[in-house]
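Minutes, project check-in

Agenda point 3 was the complex the collaborators sent over. CS summarized: two entities, 916 residues total, and the question is how they sit relative to each other. Sequences were read into the notes so everyone works from the same version.
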Amino acid sequence: MNKTVLAELRQTLGDGRVSTAPEDLAAYAYDGTWAEMRPDVVVHPQETAQVIAVLRIADAARVPVVPRGSATGLAGGAVPVEGSICLNLARMNRILEVSVPDTVAVVQPGVITQDLQRAAERLGFFYPPDPASVYQCTIGGNVATNAGGPRCLKYGVTGDYVLGLEVVLAGGHVLRLGGRTIKDVAGYDLKRLFIGSEGTLGVVTEITVRLIPKPAAQLTALAAFPRLADACAAVGNILQAGIVPLVTELMDQGTTRAIEDFKHLGLPTDVEALLLVAVDGDADLVQREIAVVADVLKRSGARDLRHARTAEESEALWEARRNVSPAIARLARNKLGEDIAVPRSRIPEMVARLGEIGRAHDLRIIVYGHIGDGNLHPTILCDRRDAAMMGRVAKAAESVLEAAVSLGGTLTGEHGIGIFKREHVPLGIDGNVLAWMAGVKALFDPNGIMNPGKKLPG
Amino acid sequence: MNKTVLAELRQTLGDGRVSTAPEDLAAYAYDGTWAEMRPDVVVHPQETAQVIAVLRIADAARVPVVPRGSATGLAGGAVPVEGSICLNLARMNRILEVSVPDTVAVVQPGVITQDLQRAAERLGFFYPPDPASVYQCTIGGNVATNAGGPRCLKYGVTGDYVLGLEVVLAGGHVLRLGGRTIKDVAGYDLKRLFIGSEGTLGVVTEITVRLIPKPAAQLTALAAFPRLADACAAVGNILQAGIVPLVTELMDQGTTRAIEDFKHLGLPTDVEALLLVAVDGDADLVQREIAVVADVLKRSGARDLRHARTAEESEALWEARRNVSPAIARLARNKLGEDIAVPRSRIPEMVARLGEIGRAHDLRIIVYGHIGDGNLHPTILCDRRDAAMMGRVAKAAESVLEAAVSLGGTLTGEHGIGIFKREHVPLGIDGNVLAWMAGVKALFDPNGIMNPGKKLPG
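CS then shared the predicted structure for the full assembly.
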């Protein structure tokens, strides 16, 4: 990297916030994927003014900037690009305000999602978005990817809670968008452009989220379905019974067997699927609702129904779901975790296609997901040392995306495009639409310094 | 208008879908405001292909196009501009699909909002957005203004239900955005740019909305508050009790007196405010919740609490709220209905400012609104024949907007900018942000034919 740029960064931010030490460059070369690229420099701003300075200097010198929070992402979005500045926002981690009268919180992007959840809960409120990495991931990263999780059928995604954003654009221009009201129709909703843009349009430096009252109770049922299609239909049947479940987590037979081999929970491994259903809300109501859910599950074809009557019993049922990732990790040296979403009615067909794709490419694909919102995580087991296998994995992954799109779904429900799906974007988004997306990118980042080579196809 | 353009429109759409008859031009000159401008021609497309043709012809000839649904808007957004084509979407009024397994509906823009609500309810589902004009307004208009209503604290605004859009841009380019899944993070969220853009970026020709299960019951309480500030605090207290009310409608003393003079419902007219609170959901739960609400209202300073125990009793309480508009209409020859939103904690201060503004300009301002989401409708009583008074009305209206912004609020919560607030936009939106909004407009509508002179300042 140009020495002048480094000198300018050091002069503006101070030496302690700029590092080119090899151990730092190595530490910031990763995210939650197997991708790796060292940045030329890592900067650690602590306030918006410093982010502005970085984006001014970088834009003038045409140096790429890759923002990151905790880098738990699963699409390579926060992995540095060649010759880039890694903009580490983890030190901007203050909860600026939790307002009881306005039921909003104002936070910096580096706040860990669970810390916001806890700050809200201490005051009797609830911040529903709950991505799997909630203990490590940041709100800024959640906004950048419009993060989801298991609760989205009932409570929506991260973007549904964002009322206001402060964004710094390439060149250091600051936009304050939205505010702290649910209703605001002055101007265009630019805020939503930045939500889910994976750091390619600007850097979010402050976030105002709305909070809701904390539900009093939560109860869970775990059902074994001989036929996976029946588990999918059961979710629709629960909705038709007037209940919006908090979570509806599907685990296929491969997933269930992996958990059972790992944890010996006594799960039925001879069925096509397990379905974990939870409801939350008023304490009396959830007791009645979980009974209705149990009844609907039985009528929908469930066997071996476990119906928690206490919070402790619920915890025991969650044990299975919580062990999905470590259990799958034991099955193979590597895995490619996919993240498609399809209309709920098409899930059984999608799962059947996954079986066909696995057989066609001689690969094992297991699947679990948040089926209430149609979001499935097909996981292709593999070994990165086996080049021939990895060639088949790439083809199978493309077939998975093609299948999802052909069923009316999307390439990514919650992980994002990052670098891993970048070249597949035209499978899911029309060229006409992509041209306007490229126009938006050029408008907000005319020199193309913001996280280049991510999100949109090259 | 250029004869060639008219001939092209006639040739492409057919004579029955193109009118220049004076009675048609007069009929399409209005919306829900007092603004008036005749278009040069009215076209009545029945399918997307015809909208494409109109926007291709208009863009080539640089003729402005003003889309409209039922034109119930309160900001002048659907009032034609000089020399324009009025694009009447009312005949594109088919409900294309209500899918039970996917819990979505797919509709054309001219569908009346209540028709969609009823179609959903027939299948046990619920489409929550409920703008006051629900019997006349169209879904396309609701999307164009991101329409709100009284249920937004609990259920959000129109845009929160839109999963997918088909949009036709100037020049006839078609974008299909989003789909039928809650989760979709492929590409930028262009869909949200069009929601609330008031026809200035493109024309929405198909809408996919998500539905939710229909709540089983709804109950209501009406409370009289000697102090308006206590009514505002009561809403926060209800949330802190763990209940998200369906509606929280505030009526100030002026509004209450107008209703009482009109309908003689026996409302207390010696208090500063009435607050109507409703809860919805499970039938047993709403019984318990309305009791908690009643208790919170009393503890918050309510007097004369009427607490409905049946649906019929609830209906009687709604009688007051439903008569707000006709009751106010009797008070003066004309009225200017404002539509600000402020953070909930600032409502008492905002109401105090309205009193000061009214006194300063020798005008009567009454106020009602959806206070759970901070949305107030200050209404300035006036007589358009009195030029001096109307000068004071204009100044007072500007002061209302300034006050809302100074309290952290917005110029418009749900009505939109249209033509009426266009020149006031810089009060509420920073020049830097406006410049990027203008950039977005130029990107999607380079020749500026889409509803020019609306939404953004000139």
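Noted in discussion: The CA atoms of residues 219 and 312 of chain B lie 9 Å apart.
Follow-up: revisit at the next meeting once the mutant set is ready.
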